[in-house]
Amino acid sequence: MVPGNLFALGVRIPNQDAEATGRGNAFTATANNPSALYYNSAGITQLEGHHVQLGFHTISVNSSYRAPNGNLSQTHWEVQPVPQLYYVYSPKESDFSYGLGVYAPFGLGLEWPETTGFRTLIIEGRLLYSTVKPVIAWQVTPSLSIAGGPTLNYAQVLLRQGIFVPGDEFKFKGRDLDFGWSAALLWKPWEKISFGVNYQSSTSMNFHGRSVASPYTPDEGTSARLPFPQFVMGGVSYRPNDKWNFEVNVDWTDWDRVTTVNFNKPSGNVPFAFNWQSSFLYEIGATRQLENGYFASVGYFFSQNSTSDANFNPVVPDTNLHVGSLGLGRKGDKWSWAVTYQLITGPSRNVTTSISPSLIGESANGKYHFLNHAVNVSLTRTF
User: CB-based contacts of 356: which residues, under 8 Å, 6+ apart?
Assistant: First the structure.
């Protein structure tokens, strides 16, 4: 699984299904397709039989930076898909449903040119984080379902930054496995209104690999512990009739866990400061049912940035984001599909008070700008 390039949201990837992203990811209280395994696993009790869904979130990312002296730099342009795979089985006339999801809830991939003026802060950063999530859901009553299960998480990371002079470089590559858990609830107290809550526990990856400070020290064994945040999604869905579904969600990510990462190696430790702050996603969306199983959706979400100016690092050039989406799909007896377009932008971020951890005094101060596009597709087979 290949992580998508991210430039905000910390390193969180909230777009895990085309139908859901068409609604601005306001899907936690609806959760009526196999991607419920990510958005609210209690929702799989709404499905009957076997369901297999494959999806891709594909984003083109290009972040630009204008230094205080006026020089302009841009990240290397890349397009990367983030795949998802979901399987759900709900036996007929059973109160229990079973699911298995494979997806990438976190990811990062960007590379700056070495002429930015902050090469000793970052040249390249890449994170792959994949989750395998088995789930059991129980329909306690006709209006209440709960779910939970463990998660197996695999991650690998690459970091490159300059040290003193052009041409030198600190580089680290490592990987690790860890376990977590999830829990979810879906409650429909009235015919037209439902509530959903989804929780994913934190994890902590102790990356083991190799690093080199070229040309000063040789390749050597290195470890680095990086915590990943817990997050909670909650929402309410209102269906005034069988044609419309409106939903509002709030999504909280505990970025306070991500402080300073130390790369531990025999020749001496290398600290890398993050000091991120917890942040919210505010999501709203609507879906209109059309003829012959077709549906159309519109959505929007706002993402708070997770870094202060003082702790800003271009490895994750974070900013407040506005994300709008339009989606179209069709649900059939055997096959269903959805496709969504997202426009991702936000105001330019002007960093003026960055505290430089650079050994030669380089700074992340300057203006950062973002305008990007994403396409999400999914295909579901029911049998």
Answer: 121, 362, 363, 364
The pLDDT profile of the chain, 383 residues, written as one tens digit per residue, is: 333 333 345 689 999 999 999 999 999 999 999 999 999 999 999 999 999 999 999 887 778 999 999 999 998 877 778 899 999 999 998 999 999 999 999 987 889 999 999 999 999 999 999 999 999 999 999 999 999 999 999 999 999 999 999 999 999 999 999 999 999 999 999 999 999 999 999 999 999 999 999 999 899 999 999 999 999 999 999 999 999 999 999 999 999 999 889 999 998 888 888 889 999 999 999 999 999 999 999 999 999 999 888 888 898 888 899 999 999 999 999 999 999 999 998 889 999 998 877 888 899 999 999 888 999 999 999 99
Whether the full predicted model's pTM is greater than 0.90, yes or no, is yes
- The closest alpha carbon to 307, from 371, 253, 370, belongs to 253
The 3-state DSSP class for residue 255 equals helix
Return d(Cα 309, Cα 7) in angstroms, integer.
15
Sign, CA dihedral 188-194-199-200, equals positive
Is residue 44 helix, strand or coil? Answer: helix
CB 186 within 8 A of CB 196: yes
